[in-house]
């Protein structure tokens, strides 16, 4: 049974690291070509040396064949001059020369072993047909046959069967090989050391990024991360800084949200406590005052309840899309029902609410969440409208999306507030926020409901003219 220790973990981590992989690449790029080049050079030397030796011996044999004919050695193999040259040539190349006549009889063997015997082999037969052979035997001998022919005559009068030792070539090759491997080893060690250092230097920027991330994650640094060594490290640093900026903004937003929630929930409680204390400190409270205070307390309780209800709605909106109840719904009927519920509120300010539908629209939506979104948009259009104004809701669609616009003739939204109106508890006109019923969460709920449907919401407004909210939602929900 294997026991994984911290030392093993460190080793495994190193083998999976970028430094180790860069080291492997550098070693492969340096060692493999170097070994292949050394082997190629040695093989080339071997081939060229053997080819040169073969050519040299073949030229000497051609000269010898001409002398054999000149001195009529094929008929009378007793010429001392030729025997001397044969001995000198065989000694020079550490080889053996056999002269064969037309009857396949050996008339001369420099080793003196098979004279007057017959040699009938494939190479000799091919040579009598005028074909020269040349090959390297397994015993490291160059074996060749050279025809002996007179002048320009094609008639072959004999064959020189020559065996030449290549021991000197192999000795030189062995010495060269040893030198090559020593050089390769020394060079390889230097390259390996250089590769280790280079791999360390190449990953240093990554190590600095990791160290910077550790400092930031541990809370010891609030500075932005920036490693400018490579273009990639600059991009990583910039993207990380963007994420950190977003996280900081999100954290500030959460803190502000908690502060706003605390304030919004505490305000009604404070009012109720003041009203209750006023009743408790008075010994005889008139019924009219008692009813008035209790009515005010009931209003504060209702306000508290509405804030809590909207907060719960926001929590549901923030849940994953898996909790959506997606069904095919008639959007025309959905909007008609929403406007029907809100028309009594609009009638109090004599506001005309109109729905304009350009075509029947059916889409895959969560009815309850989408109803809440459009209800908040239309309700806001009514609440922030002027007396005898109007609210115009339009519905249209194409092959991919359906579009809903909520337009009003209200007071409008200042341009500097347009970027913040979807934030939770944000009020455009804080001085009149207490006069208009609401929690400041309606638009945040509407945006969350639209986004969870993979849609988009935009706003345009002009002070004193009105506001338009444009919503786009896919006809088919894609999880």
Describe the structure.
The protein is of the alpha+beta class. It has ten helices and twelve strands. It folds into three domains: 223 residues, PAS domain (Beta-Lactamase, 2-Layer Sandwich), CATH 3.30.450; 88 residues, Helix Hairpins, CATH 1.10.287.130; 153 residues, 2-Layer Sandwich (Heat Shock Protein 90). The strands form three sheets. The protein has a five-stranded antiparallel sheet, sandwiched between helices. A five-stranded mixed sheet has the order 7-9-10-12-11, with helices on one face. A hairpin with a 3-residue loop joins β9 and β10. α6 packs antiparallel against α7. GO terms for molecular function: ATP binding. It catalyses: ATP + protein L-histidine = ADP + protein N-phospho-L-histidine. InterPro entries: BphY/WalK/GraS-like, HATPase_C_sf, HATPase_dom, His_kinase_dom, HisK_dim/P_dom, HisK_dim/P_sf, Sig_transdc_His_kin-like_C.
Distance between the termini: 46 Å
What is the total domain count? 3
> What is the typical, i.e. mean, pLDDT?
81
Q: What would you call the shape?
A: rod-shaped
Which sequence of strands runs across the widest sheet? 2-1-5-4-3
Question: What would you call the structural class?
Answer: alpha+beta
CATH class of the largest domain: Alpha Beta
Number of continuous helical runs = 10
Major β-sheet annotation:
5 strands, antiparallel
Total count of strands: 12
CATH topology of the largest domain: Beta-Lactamase
- CATH architecture type of the largest domain: 2-Layer Sandwich
Which runs of at least 5 residues are low in confidence (pLDDT < 50)?
430-436
Q: Could you estimate the helical fraction of the residues in percent?
A: 40-55%
Q: Going by CATH, what is the homologous superfamily of the largest domain?
A: PAS domain
What is the percentage of strand-forming residues? 15-25%
Computed CA radius of gyration, to the nearest angstrom: 51 Å
């Amino acid at each position: 049974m294997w026991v994984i220790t911290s030392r093993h973990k460190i080793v495994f981590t190193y083998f999976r690291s970028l430094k180790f992989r860069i080291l492997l690449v550098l070693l492969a790029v340096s060692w493999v070509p170097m070994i292949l080049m050394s082997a190629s050079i040695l093989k080339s030397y071997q081939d060229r040396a053997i080819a040169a030796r073969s050519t040299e011996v073949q030229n000497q044999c051609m000269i010898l064949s001409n002398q054999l004919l000149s001195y009529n050695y094929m008929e009378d193999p007793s010429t001392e001059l030729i025997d001397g040259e044969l001995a000198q040539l065989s000694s020079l190349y550490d080889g053996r020369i056999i002269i064969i006549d037309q009857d396949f009889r050996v008339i001369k063997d420099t080793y003196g072993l098979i004279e007057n015997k017959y040699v009938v082999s494939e190479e000799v037969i091919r040579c009598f047909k005028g074909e020269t052979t040349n090959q390297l035997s397994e015993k490291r001998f160059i074996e060749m046959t050279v025809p002996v022919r007179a002048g320009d005559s094609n008639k072959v009068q004999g064959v020189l069967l020559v065996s030449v030792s290549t021991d000197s070539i192999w000795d030189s090759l062995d010495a060269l090989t040893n030198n090559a491997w020593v050089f390769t080893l020394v060079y390889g060690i230097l390259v390996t050391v250089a590769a280790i250092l280079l791999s360390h230097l190449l990953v240093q920027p990554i190590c600095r990024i990791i160290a910077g991330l550790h400092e930031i994650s541990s809370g010891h640094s609030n500075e932005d991360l920036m490693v400018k060594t490579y273009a990639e490290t600059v991009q990583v640093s910039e993207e990380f800084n963007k994420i950190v900026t977003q996280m900081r903004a999100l954290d500030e937003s959460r803190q502000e949200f908690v502060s706003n929630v605390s304030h919004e929930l505490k305000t009604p409680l404070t009012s109720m406590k003041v009203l209750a204390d006023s009743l408790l400190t008075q010994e005889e409270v008139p019924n009219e005052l008692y009813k008035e205070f209790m009515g005010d307390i009931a209003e504060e309780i209702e306000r508290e309840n509405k804030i809590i209800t909207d907060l719960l709605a926001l929590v549901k909106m923030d849940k994953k899309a898996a909790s959506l109840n997606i069904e095919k719904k008639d959007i025309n009927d959905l909007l008609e029902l929403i406007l029907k519920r809100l028309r009594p509120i609009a009638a109090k300010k004599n506001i005309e609410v109109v729905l304009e539908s350009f075509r029947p629209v059916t889409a895959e939506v969560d009815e309850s969440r989408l109803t809440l979104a459009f209800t908040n948009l239309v309700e806001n259009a009514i609440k922030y409208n002027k007396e005898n104004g109007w609210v115009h809701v339009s519905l249209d669609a194409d092959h991919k999306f359906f579009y809903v616009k909520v337009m009003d003739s209200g007071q409008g939204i200042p341009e500097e507030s347009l970027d913040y109106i979807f934030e939770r508890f944000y009020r455009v006109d804080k001085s009149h926020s207490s006069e208009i019923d609401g929690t400041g969460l309606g638009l945040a709920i509407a945006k969350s409901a639209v986004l969870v449907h993979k849609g988009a919401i935009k706003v345009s407004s002009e002070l004193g003219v009105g506001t338009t909210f444009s919503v786009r939602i896919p006809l088919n929900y894609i999880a």
